[in-house]
Amino acid sequence: MSTPDLEAAPSADPGEYARLLKERVAPVLSEGLLLALRDRPTDPPAYLAEFLASKGSGVSAPAVVAAALHERQLSAEASSLQAELAALDAQLLDARAVAAARLQADAASASFELLPSELGRRLGEPSHAGGVDDMAHAAACRHETRRVERLVRSLRARMDEVR
């Protein structure tokens, strides 16, 4: 492909420029499209850009195309990572909501309500480190309280039998 003809063409007759495009550019584009159909690349625009860069006569064209392709790949990777991060954030919010509901249900069964600060502490929010350990401790305390209550009820029942 001879660039002097193409560079001089804009000032020339439009019909002459169209003929020049048909003779020199169309065959290269056709060849690139046929190769893309044959090779079935995962990223056809990138494939065609690489093909055109290899067919071009400019020295800096391959470097520019390579930089553009690299930027395109990074952009695609960044968008997929952002989507994954958004999904993980949604899962985290759902998990915290489920944990909060469970804690409120446990609190209701124990006949007291958790304050929001206590709920945050038990959920292990960043401002309350050790929340998971506190949740395990609270569960052990509830279990022990229920065991003692059963023991007291059974002792009262036995005392009533003795009287």
TrEMBL record:
Residues 71-98 form a coiled coil. Keywords: Coiled coil. It comes from the Eukaryota. This is RIIa domain-containing protein.
